[in-house]
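Q: Structure for this?
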Amino acid sequence: DGGITQSPKYLFRKEGQNVTLSCEQNLNHDAMYWYRQDPGQGLRLIYYSQIVNDFQKGDIAEGYSVSREKKESFPLTVTSAQKNPTAFYLCASSIPQQETQYFGPGTRLLVL
Amino acid sequence: DAKTTQPPSMDCAEGRAANLPCNHSTISGNEYVYWYRQIHSQGPQYIIHGLKNNETNEMASLIITEDRKSSTLILPHATLRDTAVYYCIVRVVAFGNEKLTFGTGTRLTIIP
């Protein structure tokens, strides 16, 4: 089955710790995205990548980092600089300039 | 991308048509209207999109007014599984403008 997988479903972070959220797609899409969603709010773009080895900051990139070494993978690291990381994180992919983005099931990050 | 306005919540009886309005009075000529929905704690799901003509697919119909300043998403025979938050998004489909800007959407509740 083609699709986007995110792992883990739930992730706990201690104060001062970096954590990495996984996003993998087998849809052969060039573009991938990371969004953050807070309770009762819409999605906000963190980072996006339109091609391997290239990525751009979204609206709320501070405290996050990404890499795009492979077409299939776009991991997001939540660094200790992100002071309010508790949120629902969503990964998406698309063919650039295509009409639709396809979303993964999300990872819920909680701070201990 | 143009701003959209949606009612925060709506109810609809099961089996009836659900009509979800969206206002986008500042839409420009090359901006598409998209609809996504998000079932609780899942990733958003693409429903339908259009530029100026009415569109229909297996999930829904999209009616865009002639002046393009508003649109309506129609779910013809709502079921309990259609309970979700519905997002209306306006965007230009162009390379380098891949961002989807999600507002707070309309929370649709299907009543048995």
